[in-house]
Amino acid sequence: MKTKMDIPDKEGRKRLVIVGGGFGGLKLARKLRSDKFQIVLLDKNNHHIFQPLLYQVATAGIEPSAISFPYRKIFKKRKHFHIRICEAQRVIPEDNILETSIGALSYDYLVVSTGCRTNYFGNDGLSQRTMALKNTAEALFNRNQILESFEKAQNTSNLEKRKRLMTFVIVGGGATGIELSGALAEMKKFVLPQDYPDLDMNLMRIILVDGAPRLLSAFSKKSSEEVANYLLKRDVEIITSVQVTNYENGTMTLSDNSTLETMNVFWVAGVRANSIDGLAKEAYGPGNRLLVDLYNCVQGYNNIFAIGDTALMISKEYPKGHPQVVQPAIQQARNLIQNLDRKERGLEMQPFVYHNKGSMATIGRNHAVVELKNLRFGGFPAWAVWLFIHLMSIVGVKNRLFIFVDWMWSYFTYDPSLRVIIKPLRRDKP
């Protein structure tokens, strides 16, 4: 057993441990104000990240600080609330103990809200050779990679090497894939020709690869066609119904035996839940998600809950579980807040019912697609809705202002001014 983590509570409140400060965990931590609980929030980072806009950090559209907000600033006035920056490693449910990288912590209630990581579908070697987009560090690495590729392309006289450096392959045709493709297409049209006048931008290729027959497979066929047509007009090459079998030494091999020569591969093809270890084998479902009942209680346990991307609630309407997007996580957190209070008062808990508010994805300047329950639209109105919803979802008025200014500056000048290569400091070991 690890050393015990010391978080005293003189008044003897029940301890609620939340693992992960993503959308679900943050909502639960912010809105659960019952004096019956001592709340402990655990996260590997000291800040919440607005992941839907990470692709704009990667393409030099906004700064990472604009979509990040420190937990200690959010909760600075909360009583009976504690934050620990660490990694949750294993739960010992029979003892109500959670082992972390800084010690063991007892709990009365445990909420697993650990989100997802990139899924390489068994080919984990790709994680070292491709670019993921799940956190700030990855987004900054991607930004450096994009900008350095053009610097290297300008410095080489080898035409084939230059072509590989200026070829960008995005694997995954979901919302992140098409948003990233659209952002790169806008850079190619508006930004890069000004920064690199000596380079022939006709050599730059943006290739979107997806294993499904069409892009945005979770959307309607009409939206998929609209997105594909828009990207094709922006010179994005689209390859569907094929999988990536290998990528090594600048050569990508596809399942139809064709190859692509590139030094830049973004892998946004899927996700896998970051479910915590230590629970019974029967508690884990497909994609490493935790099987939960209608109250988000993990199968086989009465005081361990899971919400958001890591929770798998199977129902008639959602036989594969709820979509791993923001809204289910937030709605599950709201439901759990009520149920924890009801549980403490000896009342029956209320089942979770997901209200699908629709889906949206932006493709680029003045264009997006929005699908509501009985309404679908695209173009500029959809783009305006996408901007508003994302802007209002960001934590902090100051952050919203910064992003709004960046967006407006880029919109009217066609020139985002954040193309800075920031390399990590490397010190020689003594």
From TrEMBL:
The External alternative NADH-ubiquinone oxidoreductase-like C-terminal domain, residue ranges: 357-412
Methyltransferase found in the keyword field: no
Top-level taxon of the source organism: Bacteria
Catalytic reactions of this protein: a quinone + NADH + H(+) = a quinol + NAD(+)
EC number, UniProt record: 1.6.5.9
Record-stated family: Belongs to the NADH dehydrogenase family.
TM annotation in the entry: 375-395
Record-level Gene Ontology MF annotations: NADH dehydrogenase (quinone) (non-electrogenic) activity
First-tier enzyme category under EC: oxidoreductase
Pfam families for this protein: NDH2_C, Pyr_redox_2
Protein name (record): NADH:ubiquinone reductase (non-electrogenic)
Organism: Bacteroides cellulosilyticus CL02T12C19
Keyword list, A-Z: FAD, Flavoprotein, Membrane, NAD, Oxidoreductase, Transit peptide, Transmembrane, Transmembrane helix
Record flagged with keyword Flavoprotein: yes
Domain FAD/NAD(P)-binding: 15-333
